[in-house]
Amino acid sequence: MAFVLAGGRGSRLRELTDRRVKPAVYFGGKSRIIDFALSNALNSGIRKIALATQYKAHSLIRHVQRGWNFFRAERNEFLDILPASQRYDEATWYRGTADAVAQNIDIIDSYHVEYVLILAGDHIYKMDYELMIRQHVETGADVTIGCLTVPRAEASAFGVMAVDAADRITSFLEKPKDPPGTPENPDVTLASMGIYVFRWDFLRELLIRDMQDQNSSHDFGNDLIPEIVRNGKAQAHRFSESCVRSSPDAPVYWRDVGTIDAFWRANIDLTDFTPELDLWDRDWPIWTYSESVPPAKFIHDEPTRRGHAVSSMVSGGCIISGTDIRQSLLFTHVKTNSFASLDGAVVLPYVNVARHARLKNVVIDRGVHIPEGLVVGEDPEADAKWFRVTGGGVTLITREMLLRREASL
């Protein structure tokens, strides 16, 4: 079975997670971030899935209920939602990633599974988990950890590991100042993806001991994994061996869209001529909740009032009325009006852009109504007075920000 951890707030996404948990944040025109971990599991042949939720989970739960309700109990398959429900005592929510699993031991016992795949629900990637599980069984490891290969200079932001020539993990370090290299290349480091495979009987015993340890932070990366590395057998599984790509020479793709800049970049990258993330692959689809919406519509064809989009993705239900759109990604039910322009815009669902607005390098939250003549992206100092401007020059616009602006005018 797959146990998906989807309770993290994602505070670095700032106002985008004021109302929703990070795994419920929109991505790619019609999906949510959680859809990637769930789709990978389903496409890998895993039809027993549990989803642990905690922080502001309503939109996540609603999305899963609407878009992932095709599992059938009579076929011995399920997607169970496990909210933090004070199962340990009346004052304790999920205290860490390991505790989220530990508090549901009795539920997992009822599934009668032999292996448990632990997944983070907040990353963008395509991976065949079957290959990782197969390696775990063949090596007889106590835990197998999914690993990215990253430059040593960037590895200090991750939990990293040193391995021997057979990829057995010899040490596991959380965000070290001097990360170790790999046996074949001292300039790169293996970083944890937060993906683990265990035999359930082994993990169950480990979790029970951890729950009783008052000095533990009840976290896989901080507590359980280092203990297994010291006293058991921990094996690394390299993501390059199971990454699902559109062609053999395509690059390995994994993104943590945990900041506004990273979120904007990953979405805008999808408008490239050949994006690194292939959303058109019918052999490894990204499943999601699909609304019943009409096709996108483009209207007006005059020299200064032409509805068109270049190097962009425009979702169903959109109406592009006399607007110039370039290298932008529009989610469902976005309406733009005459003489407006969007350049480098990531526009979440149900946004209305009024006439003469000019928006460049922006992320616009769901349900925002952009007022007539608003200009954003040309004067960072002026933008920062009302909106959130990132170090990378991306401006986030939300309803609350616009209300404050309007109240002061």
UniProtKB/TrEMBL annotation:
Reaction catalyzed: alpha-D-glucose 1-phosphate + ATP + H(+) = ADP-alpha-D-glucose + diphosphate
GO biological processes: glycogen biosynthetic process
Entries under SUPFAM superfamilies matching the protein: Nucleotide-diphospho-sugar transferases, Trimeric LpxA-like enzymes
Entry superkingdom: Bacteria
GO molecular function, a single term: ATP binding
Keyword Transferase in record: yes
Residue intervals of the Nucleotidyl transferase domain: 2-271
Keywords: ATP-binding, Carbohydrate metabolism, Glycogen biosynthesis, Glycogen metabolism, Nucleotide-binding, Nucleotidyltransferase, Transferase
Classification via InterPro entries: ADP-Glc_PPase, ADP_Glu_pyroP_CS, GlgC_bac, GlmU/GlgC-like_hexapep, NTP_transferase_dom, Nucleotide-diphossugar_trans, Trimer_LpxA-like_sf
Pathway: Glycan biosynthesis; glycogen biosynthesis
Group of enzyme by EC: transferase
Keyword Transmembrane helix attributed: no
Record-marked site positions (Could play a key role in the communication between the regulatory and the substrate sites): 54, 93
Residues annotated for alpha-D-glucose 1-phosphate binding in this entry: 94, 159, 174-175, 192
Residue span, Glucose-1-phosphate adenylyltransferase/Bifunctional protein GlmU-like C-terminal hexapeptide domain: 294-397
Stated role: Involved in the biosynthesis of ADP-glucose, a building block required for the elongation reactions to produce glycogen. Catalyzes the reaction between ATP and alpha-D-glucose 1-phosphate (G1P) to produce pyrophosphate and ADP-Glc.
Subunit structure: Homotetramer.
NCBIfam families found in the cross-reference section: glgC, PRK00725.1, PRK00844.1
Similarity section: Belongs to the bacterial/plant glucose-1-phosphate adenylyltransferase family.
Protein name (database record): Glucose-1-phosphate adenylyltransferase
Gene (name only): glgC
